[in-house]
Design goal:
Blueprint lengths: L5 H14 L7 H9 L3 E5 L6 H12 L3 E3 H10 L3 H8 L1 H13 L7 E3 L8 H8 L2 E7 L2 H10 L14 H15 L2 E4 L6 H16 L6 E3 L14 H7 L8 E3 L8 H7 L4 H12 L7 H11 L12 E5 L2 E5 L9 H5 L2 H8 L5 E7 L3 H11 L3 H5 L1 E8 L5 H8 L6 E6 L3 H13 L1 H11 L1 E5 L5 H20 L9 E6 L4 H12 L3 E8 L4 H8 L1 E3 L21 H8 L4 H14 L1 E3 L2 H10 E5 L2 H15 L5 H13 L6 E5 L7 H8 L8 H11 L7 H10 L5 E3 L3 H17 L3
Parallel strand pairs: 1-3, 1-4, 2-3, 4-5, 9-19, 10-11, 10-13, 11-12, 12-20, 14-15, 14-19, 15-18
Antiparallel strand pairs: 6-7, 8-9, 16-17
Helix pairs in contact: 2-10, 3-10, 5-6, 6-7, 11-16, 13-14, 13-22, 17-19, 19-32, 22-23, 28-29, 28-30, 30-31
Amino acid sequence: MGLLNASQLALRAATCCLRHFSTSKSWLSTKASLVGDRNILLMGPPGAGKTTVGRIVAHRLGLPAVDIDDDVLETTWRMPVAAKLAAVGGERFLEEEGQALCNFSTSGCVVSLTGSNPLHAAAMQHVKESGLVVYLDVDSEDIMQRLARMHVNRIVGQEAGASMRDILRYRRQFYEKWLDVRVLCGRGDTQEDIAEKVLKAVDRYLNHAAETYVSTRSDSVEPSNQKTHFSDVVVEGLATDGGLYVPKNGFPNIDAPEWLRLVDMSYPERALVLLEKCIHPLDISALDLRTMIFKAYGSTFSSEAVAPVKHLIHNQYVQELFHGPTASFKDLALQLMPQLFAHCLPPMCNYLILVATSGDTGSAVLSGFSRLSGTDRHRTGVLVFFPEEGVSEIQKLQMTSFREGNARAASVLSDFDFCQRAIKRMFGESGLTGHLAVEYGTVLSTANSINWARLLPQVVYHSSAYLDLCRDGVINFGEPVDVCIPTGNFGNAMSAVYAKQMGVPIRRVICASNHNHVVTDFITTGEYDLRGRPLVPSHSPAIDILKSSNLERFIYYVSHGDGRLVKELFTSLDARQHFRVPEPLLGRVQQEALAGWCSEDDCLAAVQSVHARTGYVMDTHTAVAKVVADRLQDGSCPVVLCSTAHYGKFAPAVFKALRIQNVPEDPVEQLKTLASTASRPETHRDMMTRLEEGGRRGHSVCQAEYDVLVEEVESMIQDCFLKVT
């Protein structure tokens, strides 16, 4: 048994069991039985309360509690830990402490590690193999207060001149390396509060089977024997019944003290904490997720803040979502999504990612997947379809500059809706998907926002915008804000709704449309009507969409998961180009969202007006949001305008808005001219470099025929995978 003998542990276990015999059939005992012979290992900094929390958790579960300091180290050394540290010094102490832990063995216990155990790699590897490592991520102010009460003014590894805060900050990297589950503790959480969170975290970990996803068109009355987990929905993209995947149990709700912990964190740190709560660690481990997130939001973004929030005018703030490599908000999801996708891929098959884009998604997908390496890159191809006349010249050049073997774009002589409809049809034709699987060993998937892994990371930046306003003193946590979003496929708006579900105090999601205002009409009237409705090109092409895919998730959400209704409505839309929601449901729609639209003239006037007053140049999509926010927002709280793209992507329209004459024909020269006009935001260097290096390249142009697009898909598979193999 190691340093605690069997009789000691048995006595401790018997005491706990007798004390809690009356609750032996409760869920706690059930969880204890699920833990089995594995340990629950509590890890965290000195002052995190691991010993007390460990005793409470063990008491609740009816398991033995082991404290490494008291039960292992002091027993081994026959002296207090503080005396040992004073006798041998910090470096030698860590080595002897690690050796003692390597010699320790037990099972089925709640073990409270020391604050310095994670600094010894071999020791942590040894104990990690015995169970589940739970990281008590306690607020630094709480830790400092507890250490002061304990009269601790120096800890292991703290050299002369280093502050306690510095050494605690330094140690975080080691805790992040070894954790299986994080328990985020709010400021002021008691040790009883933390123990309760530990129990819930362990319960979640052990119940991976319960954290499943369902189709928006599923019949909840009929239980399914098939469990669909995060890794499944990432790879599949679209549900087999044509619906979109959503979490069966919704999003986790985070309480205010935990949100406050995120206020002073960086964007990657916020993303890590939030996505850990949404992705089960048995789908993607905490360490792997951390690696992906810091790779996605590290050097690839030109702003250290990733998605900074800046004051525009009056009560309006702009969240700049265009600092990624392709200058649009799509980068916030698509620098991470390819890594999630590659991680979840089952062995033996190749995967072709099909994407329909109205402009920004295409280059962002191509950029994100091109950053994969090794086997992941060889097994994954990307084919983007975009409307030949429905994107800006710069967007087209961005997409067609990617001509690597596993990534390319093809245009279609039609609109975005045709492209998206064709891709959905391909997924739904079992004959086609079967042929591609048998003939080429290739499975189709998608990176459009219909894919859950595309939508999920967008929840982070809506949360981050609110936290930035709190950090900058604009609001106190709990005070409401509105969010105004240029809305086409409804994914951006839906991610704001989900952020609200997690606990972000968003009052209203304001959906802003251009003259293709089908979403505005739906939110206003409850009627979705595409009959005889042409798509009219605009200065804001990324929202030139008539059939809004993520609206399906929104209706599922406001109908409280009525899959039958969703299926009925969208079957009607496919067959008759029309549906109307019941009146009570329309009321719930309007509780969650407002909607408006603006003309082309109003859009350009907004670009000109804001530039004249502030020197700030908005892109045309942000301008649509500005006009609609001016009309619908009542001024009683701040409103965040989602600035979804850099103005340089739509240079001709911006020139027109600013009434600049003698516009250069060359897109690169256009960007340089605009840069000399705008005082802010600054030129997008990555976009400029890509255009300068990419030049003008030819690309495939497809007729607006489904069979032609299928041929393009098969040709891409042959080029991408047969040459590799």
